[in-house]
Amino acid sequence: MYSKLEKKQFWKPSVDDIQNEGCDEDELELLCDYFEHCMREMACTKCRKGFYDLSDFETAVERELGGFKLTMEKYPHAGVEQWIGIFEAEGKKLRLFGMLDPNG
């Protein structure tokens, strides 16, 4: 069966707040998807901080997002793991705040 950490990959991610500096609507939507994906993946580990280069994701390169770098960090707040993701590319910055819901 699944360990406690492995079960988190099935939890429903949610984005609670967005701070957008220069990303268009299409980029915003796609980057939110990558944030949710990375949140689930990282939740299955004991890592608290991760660094991603979107050029490592074939689909991101196809969608012209390969220039973005992502820094992910999870931290406890009021007994719940919360997440912050910061995407950066030349002249653009997107901060996303979210969490995973086990009852999703």
Structural summary, described in words:
The protein is of the alpha+beta class and 104 residues long. It has one domain. 27% of the residues lie in helices and 42% in strands. It has helices at 4-7, 25-43, 58-62, and strands at 12-21, 49-53, 69-77, 80-89, 92-101. A five-stranded antiparallel sheet has the order 1-5-4-3-2. A hairpin with a 2-residue loop joins strand 4 (80-89) and strand 5. The radius of gyration is 14 Å and the shape is globular. The two termini are 20 Å apart. The model has no long low-confidence stretch (mean pLDDT 88).
Q: Which SSEs are present, and which pair or pack?
A:
Layout: H1 4-7, E1 12-21, H2 25-43, E2 49-53, H3 58-62, E3 69-77, E4 80-89, E5 92-101
Antiparallel strand pairs: 1-5, 2-3, 3-4, 4-5
Mean pLDDT: 88
Strand order of the largest sheet: 1-5-4-3-2
Gyration radius, in Å:
14 Å
The biggest beta sheet, please? 5 strands, antiparallel
Number of E-state strands? 5
What is the count of distinct domains? 1
Topology as a string of helices (H) and strands (E): HEHEHEEE
Strand content: 35-45%
- Structural class, judged by helices and strands? alpha+beta
Distance between the termini: 20 Å
- Unreliable sequence segments: none
The dominant shape is: globular
- Number of DSSP helices? 3
Helix content: 25-40%
